[in-house]
Design a protein that fits this description.
Strands 1-2-3-4-5-6-7-8 form an eight-stranded parallel beta barrel, surrounded by seven helices. By secondary structure, the protein is of the alpha/beta class. The two termini are 18 Å apart. 42% of the residues lie in helices and 15% in strands. It has one domain: Alpha-Beta Barrel (TIM Barrel). The chain is built from ten helices and eight strands.
């Protein structure tokens, strides 16, 4: 991976504000930070989509929102309705949680139908399918990626950040290998340092979901990042 500028890394970050106790002041601050640092998006819960859209009006940052979050086991009709609502509120991207229980039970047709229901209501907006990799075997991760690809999702995504573990280098590398060079791979969950971010980008992530986005990019020289570390997760 080529050396990235500070702006280049910021432009790959979905600045994420999804804690259950998030209020309007945290949303406003995240939107201010996105505009200051050049983050690609601010990712918020459905409640806060309209406020974030208003706060980001006229800026380059977009609003992403989550569906079926954080467990993914709501009904497909509910996920579809939720998608319709966040899109109507102005969300430019949708991050949905895969139905992990159905996948682990081998109900792949139902999992695929769940993704398709959300994709239909997304109205052409990019859909990211959150696999929640910490709960899956390697074989299940591969099947989940194939389902997302076949459904027409724009991204596969590692984690919600609310499970037992988040993004790992090995999972991102596996996901990139399965989906190929053209589909998006979003690493999310537990990304706290620049070294982690660079390692995930090196193995194939092309979007990062971070709540500590500011600390990751702060202090970097504008011209270039340090070399990408070769550490393992």
């Amino acid at each position: 991976m080529k050396r990235l500028t500070r702006a280049g890394i910021a432009a790959l970050i979905d600045h994420t504000v999804l804690a259950p106790d998030t209020g309007p002041s945290q949303i406003d601050r995240a939107c201010d930070e996105a505009q200051e640092h050049g983050f690609f998006a601010v990712c918020v819960a459905p409640t806060w989509v309209r406020r974030a859209v208003s706060q980001l009006a006229g800026s380059r940052a977009v609003v992403a929102s989550v569906v079926g979050f954080p467990h993914g086991n709501t009904l497909s009709a509910v996920k579809a309705f939720e998608t319709q609502q966040v899109v109507a509120a102005g969300a430019a991207e949708v991050d949905m949680v895969l139905n992990v229980g159905l996948l682990k039970a081998g109900q792949e047709r139902l999992v695929a139908a769940d993704v398709a229901a959300v994709l239909e209501r997304a109205g052409g907006r990019p859909l990211k399918v959150i696999l929640e990799t910490a709960l899956l075997t390697d074989a299940e991760k591969e099947r989940a990626c194939v389902i997302a690809v076949d459904a027409g999702a724009a991204f596969v995504k590692t984690s919600t950040g609310f499970s037992s573990a988040g993004a790992s280098v090995s999972d991102v590398a596996r996901m990139r290998r399965i989906v190929g060079p053209d589909l998006g791979v979003k690493a999310s969950g537990g990304i706290r340092t620049l070294a982690q971010a660079l390692a995930l980008l090196e193995v194939g992530a092309n979007r990062l979901g971070c709540s500590r986005s500011v600390s990751i990019v702060s202090g970097l020289p504008p011209s270039a990042t340090p070399p990408v570390p070769r550490e393992q997760s």
